[in-house]
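hey m, so remember when u said the tokens were messed up on ur end? i reran from scratch. heres the input so u can diff it against urs
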Amino acid sequence: MNIYLIHTLCRRILHDKDFRKLVQRSPESAVMSMPFSEDERAALLSGDVGRLNREGASGFLLLILSRFEVFGLTLPVFNRRMRTGSPE
């Protein structure tokens, strides 16, 4: 898992308004615009922050995803997935 690239995506969502709008409007297109592996794309698009965190991604940076409610992540969903490690 390319943790640096996951962190880059989180920072882009935070700082790049156009990219953030793209992620909100068409998450698949946004993720495809970056060189993620199929496994990384699947984890991102399903909002599997528990797995991303276990693989080494910063929980603090992943929290940005719920701040902007991308990949189906609201704060309660983010908290549950981080706590239980389950994407459901």
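this time it looks ok to me. Helices lie at 3-15, 17-25, 27-32, 38-45, 49-54, 59-67, 75-84. if urs says something different then somethings off w ur setup not the seq
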